[in-house]
Each structure stands twice: as C-alpha cells, then as structure tokens.
C-alpha cells in the first residue's frame, strides 16, 4: 500500500514528464551505490518537501505531517528515445497544487544536478 492511498485526490490525469527531468531522476537511482528507499529534500518553497521513490515522486507539506500536495506515479517507462517525454499520472491533493507544480519540478532537477557527484 502506498502512503498516498489514504488521502483523497482533488484532481488527477495523465501528463508528460519532460525527458530531462525523468532521465535525471532515473540516473540518480541507477548510479546510487547504496540501496535507498527514498530521497527527501526541500523544494525551496515554505514547508514543502519533495520525496522521490523509485515508482512515485511526491511533494508534501512537512508542517502538516507530510500531507501530500501533488504526486507523479504510474510512469510509462517504455519509450522510443531518451529525448521523448514520459507519460505518467499526476495527482493533485491540494487546491493550489497547480501553482507550485513547475517550481517543484525545477527543485527536483536543481537538487539532483547539484548533488549528482555525491550519489555517484
């Protein structure tokens, strides 16, 4: 059971994750020598933190006992080329989740690029 199963979604649908973002997260998992269940870091937005797991990425409000704000899952890993976007499901758990979506994606990419040397 996923920890997100207990919280009702306000909105969800199929979206495309940019190839650069998806590839950076996948490389982090592949290059990590020590097995880890998740990677957690600040989004740079007040009280919002990002948790990356192998099959689910989500943003939570740490001040509200990790209540989810948004999440990506059901990644369609098969694609014809590395430069093509990846289909997945985006779930929104908060009324203003769409407002922070782009900033959270930027935070994921920025954090992984800045710390990629540590994870190798």
Structural class based on helices, strands and sheet pairing: alpha+beta
Extract low-pLDDT stretches: none
Instruction: Estimate the helix proportion, in percent.
Output: 25-40%
Task: Write down how many β-strands occur, each being a DSSP E stretch of 2 or more residues.
Answer: 6
The overall number of domains is 1
Question: What fraction of residues sit in β-strands?
Answer: 25-35%
Q: What is the molecular shape?
A: globular
Can you offer a commentary on this structure?
A 6-stranded antiparallel beta sheet has the order 1-6-5-4-3-2. The protein has one domain. A hairpin with a 5-residue loop joins strand 4 (56-61) and strand 5 (67-73). The chain has 3 helices and 6 strands. Helices cover 29% and strands 32% of the residues. The longest helix has 18 residues, at 97-114. The radius of gyration is 14 Å and the shape is globular. By secondary structure, the chain is an alpha+beta fold.
